[in-house]
Design goal:
The chain is 20% helix and 52% strand. The protein is α+β, with helices and mostly antiparallel strands. A hairpin with a 2-residue loop joins β6 and β7. It is globular.
C-alpha cells in the first residue's frame, strides 16, 4: 500500500508524520484535522484517510503548506487518482 509513517525527534519530544509520494516528490504530512500528530495512532488514522481517499478515486483536495525559514508557500493541489 502507498504511504508510510515516520517519526521526527525534536526538543519537545517529537511528532509523527505520513510520508506520501505524489509523482517523484515526497510530502511529509504531520497534521491531522489541524493538530500535530503526537501519537502513532493519530498518524495511522491520517494514513488510513489518505489511502481511503485514493481508493475511492479522489486523493486530496486542499492545501499543502510548506514552511521554509521565514517564507510560507501554499500549494493548492487537487489530484485525481489514476
Amino acid at each position: 500500500m502507498k504511504g508510510s509513517i515516520g517519526f521526527r525527534k525534536t526538543k519537545d519530544g517529537g511528532y509523527y508524520f505520513v510520508s506520501w509520494y505524489i509523482g517523484k516528490k515526497q510530502y511529509k504530512i504531520s497534521r491531522y484535522k489541524g493538530f500535530i500528530c503526537r501519537t502513532k495512532d493519530m498518524a495511522q488514522r491520517l494514513l488510513s484517510v489518505m489511502r481511503s481517499d485514493e481508493e475511492s478515486g479522489f486523493f486530496f483536495s486542499g492545501n499543502l503548506v510548506q514552511i521554509d525559514s521565514d517564507q510560507i508557500v501554499v500549494f493548492d493541489i487537487q489530484i485525481e487518482a489514476a
